């Protein structure tokens, strides 16, 4: 419980003390939007890295060389933990937002920082509003802002399983022409969700796979894009589990 309390206190203090910084970022954005994007990511990334250290997470990262450097991309990953965003933001080169549930807008101050790093808020219960969000995401990608989405649609609560990847999540890449970078996240729930409310030290492995260019896929693969990308992630997931957690399997 001690780690959990410390992290909550840090998050509250971070958000409260960041109010004047948010105001400064707003002013910067009026004159230099690019600088605001970079500074907001740096500020949020610093906060996330502090949380990772407080949680005692040993983060192992692989495959960053697979991320294209000349274009915005759509990162697609499996989703088991609230920490998935905390763990991944600083790993992305360039400006990258997340596609989040609209319910996140209810969190004061946090929602402002999320907007500052180009997060989009998806209303899954409203098709019309959901389409507007997708179109906004397409525009972001075309303008050079990468996005990260978890196509399972919600946090998967069952260890070593994968919920179906929603095909609609890939419209962002299809309509923008951005490559899809599959992202394997292994054991992110081991620090918190697997034993709520305790936060314990754990090892997390994140590996970026080679980009998927939709226009180069076969017709059958494009038709079932969610299943195709899910297959890439799930296959590598169990290979990484064998490599890094084989002793736990014995």
Care to describe what's here?
With 250 residues, the chain is α/β, with parallel strands linked by helices. The protein has a single domain, classed as Glycerol-3-phosphate (1)-acyltransferase (3-Layer(aba) Sandwich). The protein is 47% helix and 15% strand. Strands 1-7-6-2-5-3-4 form a seven-stranded mixed β-sheet, with helices on both faces. Helix 5 links the parallel strand 3 (96-101) and strand 4. The protein is globular and about 50 Å long. The chain starts with a helix and ends with a helix. The model has no long low-confidence stretch (mean pLDDT 93).
What would a concise description of this structure say?
The protein is α/β, with parallel strands linked by helices. Helices cover 47% and strands 15% of the residues.
Structural topology:
Blueprint (H helix, E strand, L loop, with lengths): L1 H16 L1 H13 L1 H23 L1 E6 L11 E4 L5 H6 L7 E6 L8 H7 L3 E3 L4 H16 L3 E4 L21 H6 L3 E7 L15 E7 L10 H5 L1 H25 L1
Comma- or semicolon-separated keywords:
Glycerol-3-phosphate (1)-acyltransferase; globular; 7 strands; alpha/beta; 250 residues
Residue ranges: pLDDT <50 for 5 or more in a row?
none
Sheet with the most strands, sense and barrel status? 7 strands, mixed
Could you say how many structural domains there are in total? 1
- Placed side by side, the strands forming the largest sheet appear as 1-7-6-2-5-3-4
Coarse structural class: alpha/beta
Please provide the ordered H/E string of secondary-structure elements: HHHEEHEHEHEHEEHH
Q: How far apart lie the N and C ends?
A: 29 Å
Per DSSP E runs of 2 or more residues, the count of β-strands stands at 7
Averaged pLDDT: 93
CATH second-level architecture: 3-Layer(aba) Sandwich
The shape, in one word, is: globular
As a percent range, the share of strand residues is: 5-15%
The total of helices stands at 9
Annotated CATH homologous superfamily: Glycerol-3-phosphate (1)-acyltransferase
**CATH domain class:** Alpha Beta
Helix content: 40-55%
Radius of gyration over C-alpha positions, nearest whole angstrom: 18 Å
């Amino acid at each position: 419980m001690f780690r959990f309390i410390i992290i909550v206190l840090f998050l509250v203090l971070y958000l409260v003390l960041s109010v004047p910084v948010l105001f400064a970022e707003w002013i910067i954005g009026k004159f230099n939007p690019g600088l605001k994007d970079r500074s907001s990511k740096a500020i949020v990334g610093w906060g996330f890295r502090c949380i990772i250290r407080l949680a005692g997470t040993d983060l192992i990262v692989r495959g960053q060389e697979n991320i294209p450097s000349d274009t915005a991309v759509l990162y697609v990953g499996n989703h088991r933990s609230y920490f998935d965003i905390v763990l991944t933001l600083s790993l992305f080169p360039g400006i990258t937002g997340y596609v989040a549930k609209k319910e996140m807008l209810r969190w004061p101050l946090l929602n402002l920082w999320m907007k500052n790093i180009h997060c989009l808020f998806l209303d899954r219960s409203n098709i019309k509003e959901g389409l507007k969000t997708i179109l906004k995401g397409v525009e972001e990608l075309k303008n050079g802002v990468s996005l990260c989405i978890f196509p399972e649609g919600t946090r998967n609560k069952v260890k070593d399983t994968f919920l179906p990847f929603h095909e609609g999540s890939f419209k962002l890449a299809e309509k923008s022409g951005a490559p899809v970078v599959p992202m394997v996240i292994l054991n992110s729930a081991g620090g918190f969700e697997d034993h709520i409310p305790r936060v314990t030290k754990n090892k997390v492995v994140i590996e970026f796979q080679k980009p998927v260019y939709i226009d180069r896929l076969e017709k059958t693969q494009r038709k079932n894009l969610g299943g195709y990308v899910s297959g890439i992630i799930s296959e590598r997931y169990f290979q990484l589990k064998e490599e890094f957690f084989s002793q736990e399997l014995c």
